[in-house]
């Protein structure tokens, strides 16, 4: 199946407002096909997980079709997803149509072509799965904005406090071992930070004890398992495919852990739930949404982001480390501390964070459905997408578009310094462009600026304490791993 329409782009909605090149590009049919019903999605799923792997899956199809826009199927397929057919957008020019809620609908497509059971979120469709056209979306997103605004003064001091505990833990483990796995201590720190931020107490003082991050990980796994491959021996691929990608994992298996998380948040967020109730949101619905925001969006995001940041900065080497040390320590001395003002003046530090978000976005996928017939542009062609068709974007390819970024596969710490700032409009990681702001009318992450802030603070605290470090990098189910192999304490501050 491929589009053979000869409709004129002038009669259809166009993606040119999202930064496309000339609207005079030739209108071409979208290449690719979905294969036979049932068997086509299964074949593409096996290619994606086992025969080729993610990046090769997309790259081979780009080469085959000589196009960064094509038709394919995306996992999980039967029987979890009722329709696997997507139009893939894999370049920096076509990709932003996925953020334009005037042209696309974001209903129930937060994680992909399927939606996890609402039994995992208290029976509610939480804000992430709502389209901005639904009235409740604005109510819930305004509540999140209000919460973040009220906590503004806590971001830096609380995160610094949590990082201090992380680095003490890191050094203690180094005293006993020659290598320290970062992800585990980062996950614990991230959950502690999130819980202390929103609930104003340490999770260890609640019934969660020290198991909050582990409970959250299990809950996240039950939602995202259809997108994962465990890396088992080939002989077990069939068993894994049936267990993870064919039928949803039963929600009751994680219900106990989720209820503990819910009760811990509910018992600690009285004032926030009061505010929600006053705005017209039921207390329990608000709490389920806030658990999702804290546990999935915030903790889940930090769980992916911080190890990736450490990985790429570590692999960049000692020269970049010296430059970061010099900038960070000079500005902290001049400003008399780590403040919003000081962080804004650290141009290299900011650039390094943006580069980490560019080269390994914490969320790899974007999905949407066309509200009406529209035309999307790649670098060299225009393509008609019909109303109701599912549109898909793989962010790591869009943000490594070789026609936009020089040496796109390289981590270049200075990439966004000076004139390089103009390229920030092509950094997509937050369900929007880096230069855009989240609003109640769009689906951009409401904590977008907080994520960037925390990443900068992480680097500042790291290079105030240490001159350089080395790591071993690896891959996980959805993200990267980082293992510290050396850590050199600061010789001067």
Describe this protein's structure.
The chain has 493 residues and is α/β, with parallel strands linked by helices. The protein has one domain (9-489): Cytochrome p450 (Orthogonal Bundle). It contains 15 helices and 12 strands. The strands form 3 sheets. Strands 3-4-10-7-5 form a 5-stranded mixed sheet. Strands 1-8-9-2 form a 4-stranded mixed sheet, with no helix packed on it. The chain has a 3-stranded antiparallel sheet with strand order 6-12-11. The longest helix is centred in the middle third of the chain and has 34 residues, at 283-316. The chain is globular.
Q: Give a short account of the largest sheet.
A: 5 strands, mixed
Arithmetic mean pLDDT: 94
Q: Radius of gyration in whole Å, from Cα?
A: 23 Å
**How many β strands by DSSP?**
12
Range of helix content = 40-55%
Q: How many domains make up the coordinates?
A: 1
CATH homology superfamily: Cytochrome P450
Q: Multimeric state of these chains?
A: single chain
Along the chain, the helix and strand elements come as: EEHHEEEHHEHHHHHHHHHEEEEHHEE
CATH fold descriptor: Cytochrome p450
* Percentage beta strand: 5-15%
CATH architecture: Orthogonal Bundle
Termini separation:
63 Å
Number of helices: 15
Low-confidence stretches: 1-20
Structural class: alpha/beta
Protein name: Allene oxide synthase
Family: Belongs to the cytochrome P450 family.
Keywords: Heme, Iron, Lyase, Metal-binding
GO molecular function, one term: heme binding
